[in-house]
Amino acid sequence: MSYSDPNRLDRIEALVESNSRQLTQLGQTTQFLTTAQLELARSMDVLIRRVDRVEDQVSQLAQSQQALIESQRSLAQSMERMTVVQTQLAEQQGRLVEQQGRLADGQASTNAAVERLDRILDYLIQRDGER
To answer: Which residues in the chain come in under a pLDDT of 50?
Structure first.
């Protein structure tokens, strides 16, 4: 009886059509998901390249920062050496000022001695001329 039921063929046909529509929808959904997955993969590739570039830039920045630190250290050492040299120059200048004072005193003493010798010489010449 169930084999001869005319509605059974209609139901099977309806079921086949329903399954066919569902398979078509499933295929479309699968196609949509595949497209979305491919787009996601492309986006991931773009992001990976960007991350790689950022990592390179961070590495370069770290190297530049290290070079800057070394330059600052070198500059600080140079400034320390300049301070030592300035101190030494100031000490030498002080010694030169002292020496200049002693030379001025010596020159004044020498000038006074020369002046006395001139007077003595004038006196001797004058005395010799009187004889």
So the answer is: 1
